[in-house]
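Input record (one chain):
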Amino acid sequence: MRFHTKPTTFVGHVKIKVTNLEQSIQFYRDILGFDILEQTASAVKLTTDGKTSILSLEQPENVIAKQGRTTGLYHFALLLPEKSDLANIVVHLVEHGIRFGSSDHLVSEALYLNDPDGNQIEIYIDRAPSEWAWLEGEVAMTVDPLDFERLLKNVTANKWEGMPEKTVMGHIHLHVAELKEVEEFYVKGLGLDVVNRYGGQALFLSDAKYHHHVAVNVWNGVGAPKPAKNSVGLEFFTLVYANEEARQEVVRNLQQIGSGVVEENNRIIAQDPSGNSIILAV
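The corresponding structure, as predicted from the sequence alone:
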């Protein structure tokens, strides 16, 4: 998990909005196997290790359903520690009648499913970085069928016992309105590197030569509007920096490109050109 610990910059936490908190808790706790770290009447922090929260849910006032063709969350991605974990959750999801898609991306093997509100979740494992193919600074990724026959040979006797303790937020993938200003924001502002360009449709960005910590796409249409503040979807995600000095450098870089930050409740919050909120953390 060296790509998800300091000094690498990584996504530490994602907060999403839902229409029915209790229904969502049942899904994330009883189906996916998270534990509850903290809960209020309108929000819950979820954990896999009992100490830190990588995902939280909130039911906003006057919440409305997920809106189509807007910017915001495409999916957040949970990175499991072992191949057996991915094999075990395949069996678990099938046993519970949960529909899911799948893909082999060369760098990783992934499942895709939706929560009760249509927030998309990726659950994946990485192949060893020594197996990733790089050419002229870009990592090779594709969308191939997942070999379930090979994967399911890794099912263990105890099967799925909830999200493994060492599960991390592997990456986040966002809908944006355009790519040029967004690339400047994430590269010159936040300090990430472009590691793959998917035609003129998507960018994959990372730190420390990971295959991606953040991805952005225009698949909801160039010029897609921001979703309503009270709609289902992304509230924010956090980017964790090595130390305070690194964070302040990012703040200065954002100001230089004309993208200010807001300090609120002891948090430093940036917003990309398409309205996606990022908390800069250390």
